[in-house]
C-alpha cells in the first residue's frame, strides 16, 4: 500500500507517526488518513473522534450562520419550507472539481484515490434533513397514540398519568444525552451513521454488535406490527369478506414499493402528512366514542380481557358489564397485565432508537433539539389527552390499536382507512432505517458493497426492500397476540434504546471528555494522542471533574431503566405463556382475530 506521503494532497501534511494504525488487519507505520481507515477501526481513539467532531461542529455553525443569518424558531420547525437542500460544497472546491468521484468507497483500495476534500464532501452531501423534518419523522408514529388508551385501561387514571409523564420527560432527557454524544463523536471525517456507531466509539466492537442486533430486531418487529395492525383494519373494513392472510399480505406487498424511498429528506413531507392524518384519526375516534358504545363484539381482545376476563364477559342474557374506571390498578392481583399495558405507552417514546440516524442526515444537527423537544411535547400533550378521553368513554373495552374499537361501521371504516395510510408511512420509515442498519453493517462492511450514496447501490436497495418486508410479514403473521407482541418488543428493545442505553453511553463519554486537560488530546500534526495519565486514575478524575453530578445521575438512571426493562420482560413473557396455552389465530389463516363469528 502506498505511503501516506504519496497519497496526501499537494501541500498537505503527511502526519507521520511512530505508532502503527490498524487497517484491514495490516500494520501501517504512519498516521492513516480517515478515508483509508477500516470502517470500524479499533485503533482510532476517542480523542481523535472528539477532535474532528469539534472541527465539524464549528464548520457547521459557520455555514449555518452564513447561509441563514438567523436561527430557526419553533414555528418554522413545525411548518418548514421546502427550501434548503443541505450543506453544499465550498464554491472554491466546486471550481477545483472536488466532488466525490463515483467509486465504491467500501473498498479500501478504491479509497486510496479519494482526496481529503472529496471525503468530507461525501459526508456533507448526505446531510439534508432539517429540524422540521425531524419533528415530523419523530411524530410519524402509529403505535404510540393508538396504544396509549389501552395502556390507561390496564393501569388506571393515577398510575397511567404519572408513569406516562415520567416516561415522557425521561425520553426527552435521553434525546438530549444522545444529542450530546452525537455532537461530540460525529464528524465529516468519521461520520456517525447509527446508534451502534456511538456504542463502538465508546465501548468497542461488542457493544456495536449488541446495539445493531437489538436495533434490527426492533425495526423489523415494528414493521411486522404495522403490517398486522393494517391487516386487522382492512379485514374489519371489508367486513371480513377477504381472507385475513391476504389482508396482511397486501400491506407487505405495498411496502415493496413505498420502501424504495431511500433518503430521510424525501420522507419529510410524507411524515408531515402522516402526523396530520394521525390527528384526524384521533379527533374522529374521540368524537365517535363520545356518541356510541364500544365494540362489545371484540371484547375478547380488549384491555379488560387481558386484566380480568370477568370485566368484559357478558351474562346469560348477553348483557355486557358497564364501562368501568379505576383510580389505581384495575386488578392489583394481576400486576403483569398492568405492566404489559404500560409497555404500550413506552411505544409512544420509541423514536429515540433512530435519533442518531436522524441527526446523521441533518445539515445542522445542532437544531435537532428543537425538533426533538417539540416532538416530545406534542407526543405528551396530544397522546395524553387522547388516551384519557378514550379511557373515559370506553373504559375496559378499549382495543389496541384504539381505532379498531369504535362500533359504528361507517366511522370505523373511515378511521381504519386513514390509519392504514398513516401506518404504511410509519412502517416505510422503520423499514428505511432498518435496511440501512443491515446494509451498512453487513453488506458494506463484510462484502464491500457500494455505500447507499453511490448510484450502483440503488439496485441493491431495490432488491433488499422486498426481502425485508417479506421477512417482517412472516414474523408478524406468526404472532397471535398483538398486545403481547408489542409488550415484548417494548421491553426488550424500545425501553433499552430510549432509557437504558443513553445514560450508559453518556457516562463513559462524559468521563473521557472531562478527563481531557490542557495540552492533551489528538495532535493533527503528527497523529499522536497526548495523554498525561491513563488507567483507573484517569477514569476517576474524569468522573469527578466538571459536571460530576451528571455522571451520578447517569448511573441512577441506567440502573432504574434496567430494572424497569427486566420487569417488562417478565410481564410480557408471562402474558405470552398464557396466550400460547390455547390455539390462537394468526395471519397464515383466513379468519380475522376481530371476527368473533369466525
Task: Describe it.
The chain is mainly α and 598 residues long. It is 63% helix and 2% strand. It contains 22 helices and four strands. Strands 1-2 form a two-stranded antiparallel ribbon. Helix 15 packs across helix 20. The termini are far apart. 49% of the residues are buried. The N terminus is likely disordered.
Strand segment count = 4
Computed Rg: 26 Å
- Helix content, binned percent: 55-70%
The overall pLDDT average reads 80
Strand content: under 5%
* Sheet with the most strands, sense and barrel status: 2 strands, antiparallel
Q: Order of strands in the sheet with the most strands?
A: 1-2
Number of helices: 22
| Shape field | globular
Order of helices and strands: HEEHHHHHHHHHHHHHHHHHHHEEHH
Distance between the termini: 69 Å
Low-pLDDT windows of residues: 1-29, 82-99
Given helix and strand content, the structural type is: mainly alpha
How does the SSE layout of this entry go?
Layout: H1 4-7, E1 21-23, E2 26-28, H2 46-68, H3 74-78, H4 91-95, H5 108-111, H6 116-125, H7 131-139, H8 143-155, H9 157-185, H10 195-203, H11 205-237, H12 244-258, H13 264-291, H14 303-307, H15 335-346, H16 355-360, H17 368-394, H18 409-447, H19 457-478, H20 482-515, E3 521-522, E4 529-530, H21 535-544, H22 548-580
Helix pairs in contact: 7-13, 7-17, 8-9, 8-15, 8-17, 9-17, 9-20, 10-11, 11-12, 11-18, 11-19, 11-20, 12-18, 12-19, 13-17, 13-18, 15-20, 15-22, 20-21, 20-22
Amino acid at each position: 500500500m502506498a505511503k501516506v506521503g504519496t497519497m496526501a494532497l499537494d501541500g498537505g501534511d503527511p502526519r507521520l507517526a511512530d505508532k502503527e494504525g490498524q487497517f484491514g488487519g495490516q500494520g501501517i507505520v504512519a498516521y492513516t488518513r480517515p478515508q483509508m481507515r477500516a470502517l470500524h477501526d479499533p485503533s482510532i481513539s476517542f480523542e481523535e473522534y472528539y477532535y474532528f467532531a469539534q472541527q465539524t461542529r464549528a464548520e457547521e455553525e459557520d455555514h449555518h450562520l452564513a447561509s441563514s443569518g438567523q436561527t430557526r424558531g419553533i414555528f418554522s420547525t413545525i411548518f418548514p419550507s421546502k427550501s434548503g437542500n443541505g450543506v453544499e460544497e465550498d464554491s472554491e472546491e466546486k471550481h477545483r472539481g472536488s466532488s466525490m468521484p463515483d467509486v465504491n468507497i467500501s473498498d479500501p483500495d478504491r479509497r486510496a484515490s479519494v482526496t481529503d476534500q472529496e471525503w468530507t464532501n461525501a459526508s456533507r452531501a448526505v446531510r439534508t434533513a432539517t429540524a422540521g423534518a425531524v419533528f415530523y419523522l419523530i411524530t410519524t408514529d402509529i403505535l404510540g397514540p393508538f396504544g396509549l388508551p389501552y395502556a390507561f385501561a390496564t393501569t388506571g387514571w393515577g398510575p397511567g398519568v404519572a408513569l406516562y409523564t415520567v416516561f415522557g420527560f425521561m425520553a426527552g432527557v435521553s434525546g438530549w444525552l444522545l444529542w450530546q454524544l452525537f455532537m461530540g463523536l460525529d464528524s465529516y471525517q468519521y461520520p456517525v451513521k447509527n446508534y451502534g456507531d456511538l456504542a463502538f466509539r465508546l465501548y468497542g466492537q461488542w457493544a456495536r454488535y449488541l446495539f445493531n442486533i437489538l436495533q434490527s430486531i426492533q425495526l423489523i418487529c415494528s414493521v411486522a406490527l404495522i403490517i398486522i395492525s393494517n391487516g386487522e383494519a382492512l379485514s374489519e373494513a371489508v367486513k371480513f369478506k377477504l381472507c385475513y392472510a391476504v389482508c396482511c399480505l397486501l400491506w407487505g406487498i405495498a411496502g415493496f414499493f413505498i420502501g424504495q424511498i431511500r433518503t430521510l429528506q424525501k420522507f419529510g413531507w410524507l411524515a408531515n402528512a402522516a402526523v396530520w392524518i394521525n390527528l384526524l384519526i384521533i379527533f374522529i375516534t374521540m368524537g365517535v366514542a363520545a356518541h356510541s358504545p364500544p365494540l362489545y363484539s371484540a371484547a375478547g381482545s380488549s384491555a379488560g380481557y387481558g386484566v380480568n376476563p370477568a370485566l368484559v364477559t357478558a351474562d346469560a342474557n348477553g348483557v355486557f358489564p358497564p364501562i368501568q374506571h379505576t383510580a389505581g390498578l384495575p386488578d392489583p392481583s394481576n400486576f403483569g397485565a398492568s405492566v404489559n399495558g404500560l409497555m404500550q405507552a413506552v411505544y409512544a417514546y420509541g423514536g429515540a432508537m433512530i435519533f442518531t440516524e436522524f441527526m446523521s442526515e441533518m445539515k445542522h444537527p445542532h437544531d435537532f433539539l428543537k425538533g426533538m423537544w417539540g416532538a416530545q411535547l406534542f407526543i405528551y400533550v396530544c397522546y395524553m389527552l387522547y388516551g384519557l378521553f378514550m379511557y373515559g368513554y370506553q373504559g375496559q373495552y378499549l382495543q389496541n390499536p384504539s381505532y379498531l374499537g369504535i362500533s359504528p361501521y361507517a366511522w370505523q371504516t373511515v378511521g381504519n382507512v386513514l390509519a392504514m395510510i398513516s401506518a404504511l408511512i410509519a412502517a416505510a420509515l422503520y423499514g428505511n432505517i432498518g435496511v440501512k442498519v443491515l446494509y451498512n453493517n453487513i453488506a458494506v462492511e463484510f462484502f464491500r458493497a457500494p455505500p447507499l450514496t453511490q448510484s450502483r447501490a440503488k439496485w441493491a436497495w431495490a432488491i433488499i426492500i422486498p426481502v425485508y418486508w417479506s421477512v417482517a410479514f412472516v414474523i408478524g403473521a406468526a404472532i397471535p397476540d398483538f398486545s403481547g407482541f408489542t409488550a415484548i418488543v417494548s421491553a426488550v428493545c424500545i425501553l433499552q434504546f430510549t432509557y437504558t442505553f443513553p445514560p450508559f453511553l453518556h457516562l463513559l463519554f462524559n468521563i473521557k471528555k472531562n478527563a481531557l486537560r490542557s495540552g492533551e488530546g489528538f495532535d493533527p500534526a503528527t497523529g499522536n494522542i497526548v495523554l498525561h495519565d491513563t488507567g483507573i486514575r484517569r477514569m476517576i478524575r474524569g468522573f469527578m471533574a466538571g459536571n460530576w453530578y451528571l455522571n451520578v445521575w447517569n448511573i441512577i438512571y441506567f440502573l432504574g431503566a434496567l430494572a424497569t426493562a427486566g420487569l417488562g420482560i417478565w410481564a410480557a413473557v408471562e402474558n405470552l405463556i398464557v396466550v400460547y396455552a390455547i390455539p390462537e389465530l394468526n395471519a397464515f389463516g383466513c379468519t380475522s382475530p376481530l371476527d368473533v363469528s369466525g
